[in-house]
Amino acid sequence: MSGELIAFFILGLIAIGGAVLMLNLSKVMHMVLALVFSFLSIAGIYVLLSAEFIAVVQVLIYSGAITIIMLFGIMLTRHNDTSEPQKAPLKNLLVLLGVVGFFLVMYFAVNNLTFGEQATDLHVDNTANIGIALFTEYVIPFELTSVLLLVALVGAIVLAKRDDEKEAEGDE
Amino acid sequence: MSSIPLSVFLVLALILFCIGLYGALTKRNTVIVLISIELMLNAVNINLVAFSKYGINPGITGQVFTLFTIAVAAAEAAVGLAILIALYRNRQTVNIDEMDRLKR
């Protein structure tokens, strides 16, 4: 058993464990914190796949920014209520059956899937190669992404802005 | 050459995707639903990076598209949270069962 495989199993176990904890914890704040473990170990899995730049971006964006955004969302709403007891066990059972069916179908599709060859030089100048590919081949999607981020920023501000005239008319 | 086969990465991503799908379909709190969707997007990112190393045409393309996915996911989280806060201000609830204004 190589060290790479051991690292993969530990990281995968932490990732799945964090996600399962997210489903089973009762307090919303604890759910988000459990998911940070998942995000961090997914960054480790990116390192195993020789994608160092993606790993750093994962740590910055997911375990930093998105977690903080979600914590803000919890704190700006009712943060101390636990998620309510499930009222529809039949619906949950049906969803569980559907998800398990999906899992089985996809599992038999991807199990023992192999393409033979694999890239060996992805870790050499990883960030530089991503930058070159981004600014030569994918420059139009890159610019479109910047436009999308601007639109999302403006839309988020407009949506979350307090409507002063409406609140002056009367409470709710 | 790496000793890990491709399929274990795909199975790990599949398990994370299924957990995220179950959470998104059954949880009541809207913040947790958004978080579950983020988990599903993460599983897809693992697949993209794995195929960029082990795929039919291995190369840097999968990693570039993972960056695009992360950017779109961040935008989605910001807009989703803004909608959530606007709804909370109007209805005083984060329970997804009570957000049924379109049905009435």
TrEMBL record, chain A:
Pfam families: Oxidored_q3. It is an enzyme of class 7 (translocase). Keywords: Cell membrane, Membrane, NAD, Quinone, Transmembrane, Transmembrane helix, Ubiquinone. It is found in: Cell membrane. It is a multi-pass membrane protein. It catalyses: a quinone + NADH + 5 H(+)(in) = a quinol + NAD(+) + 4 H(+)(out). Its EC number is 7.1.1.-. GO terms for cellular component: plasma membrane. GO terms for molecular function: NADH dehydrogenase (ubiquinone) activity; quinone binding. The chain crosses the membrane at residues 6-25, 32-49, 55-77, 89-110, 130-159. InterPro entries: NADH_UbQ/plastoQ_OxRdtase_su6, Nuo/plastoQ_OxRdtase_6_NuoJ. NDH-1 shuttles electrons from NADH, via FMN and iron-sulfur (Fe-S) centers, to quinones in the respiratory chain. Couples the redox reaction to proton translocation (for every two electrons transferred, four hydrogen ions are translocated across the cytoplasmic membrane), and thus conserves the redox energy in a proton gradient. PANTHER family: NADH-UBIQUINONE OXIDOREDUCTASE CHAIN 6 (PTHR33269:SF17). Belongs to the complex I subunit 6 family. This is NADH-quinone oxidoreductase subunit J. It comes from Lottiidibacillus patelloidae.
UniProtKB/TrEMBL annotation, chain B:
It is a multi-pass membrane protein. Keywords: Cell membrane, Membrane, NAD, Quinone, Translocase, Transmembrane, Transmembrane helix, Transport. It is an enzyme of class 7 (translocase). Its main location: membrane. InterPro entries: NADH_UbQ_OxRdtase_chain4L/K, NUOK/Mnh_C1-like. Its EC number is 7.1.1.-. GO terms for molecular function: NADH dehydrogenase (quinone) (non-electrogenic) activity; quinone binding. NDH-1 is composed of 14 different subunits. Subunits NuoA, H, J, K, L, M, N constitute the membrane sector of the complex. NDH-1 shuttles electrons from NADH, via FMN and iron-sulfur (Fe-S) centers, to quinones in the respiratory chain. The immediate electron acceptor for the enzyme in this species is believed to be a menaquinone. Couples the redox reaction to proton translocation (for every two electrons transferred, four hydrogen ions are translocated across the cytoplasmic membrane), and thus conserves the redox energy in a proton gradient. Belongs to the complex I subunit 4L family. This is NADH-quinone oxidoreductase subunit K. It comes from Lottiidibacillus patelloidae.
